[in-house]
Amino acid sequence: MSAYGSKAPDKATLTRYAREGLTQEQMAERWTAESEWSISRSGIAMALQREGVPPVKPRPRYEEEIPWRVLSRHQRRTDAQMLRLWARRKHGKQVVGDEALRLNRWLSRLEEQDAVIGYDPRTEEGFIWIPRAKVGDAEAQGMKVVDPLDR
Q: How many CB atoms lie within 10 A of CB 9?
């Protein structure tokens, strides 16, 4: 247990898990099995950050495709998910099955509406579909826009 009296593993344990190549989920399962404490994947993530242990496999950022700092309350929005899928596909990673179907439908809707994607963290939805004809206005107001159709 860490020096702070938390239920999370200490730095040495987290480092050992990371060297073994365990995912955060696997670390949580291992810690729960090895100790009397139950911990979630997010608890492991917080402990890794607090202890300064770098992630085993850093999550790709896709900064060109998602140029905004997306607030946590918007991370699970459909547009955020589709932008991540599109970015994965654009970078040569496979997008298959239901994810591919959802992405293709989303791209088709964007094309039908002749829209691009903007982001405004002050809004409830976060992501905004902007008609291509209004892109100049949005950019003039300082909004970054992304066109997943690369038109």
A: 27
